[in-house]
Design goal:
By secondary structure, the protein is mainly α. Helix content is 76%, strand content 0%. The chain has 2 domains: 81 residues, no CATH class; 41 residues. The mean pLDDT is 79.
């Protein structure tokens, strides 16, 4: 099932049954990717300017809309960018980064904080 008017937009004729795939068929992948980043960064700026808890929650929702849908678009970019023989390796590397980053980020951040505090005592 293709969206109405897909033939007029010269989109690929495939079966798109999920929401992100439908959006990616209507617009260029780079346009969707850029728009999601705009939402994410707009939420970040709103977080910095938040003066109440309500504003803080709304800014996090905006950030979540941009960042949450980002993984689907990145996966689509990977599948379009690599030939079928190399898609498995590309998606595995992407998945590895998604799994390892939440583990290493806080660990390295804590280690750098400890090292920074230790250096403060040396001066």
């Amino acid at each position: 099932m293709n969206p109405p008017g897909a033939d007029k937009l010269s989109c690929r004729q495939r079966d798109y049954s999920s929401g992100p795939a439908y959006v990616l068929q209507l617009f260029r992948t780079q346009t969707v990717f850029d728009r999601l980043h705009d939402y994410f960064h707009g939420g970040f700026i709103a977080l910095r300017l938040a003066s109440s808890m309500t504003m803080l929650v709304l800014a996090r929702v905006l950030q979540g809309l941009g960042g949450g849908a980002d993984a689907t678009v990145v996966e689509s970019i990977l599948l379009e960018s690599f030939p079928p023989a190399k898609r498995g390796a590309a998606t595995a590397l992407f998945g590895l980064a998604i799994v390892v980053a939440p583990i290493l980020g806080p660990t390295l951040g804590g280690w750098l904080t400890i090292i920074g505090r230790a250096l403060d005592f040396l001066h």
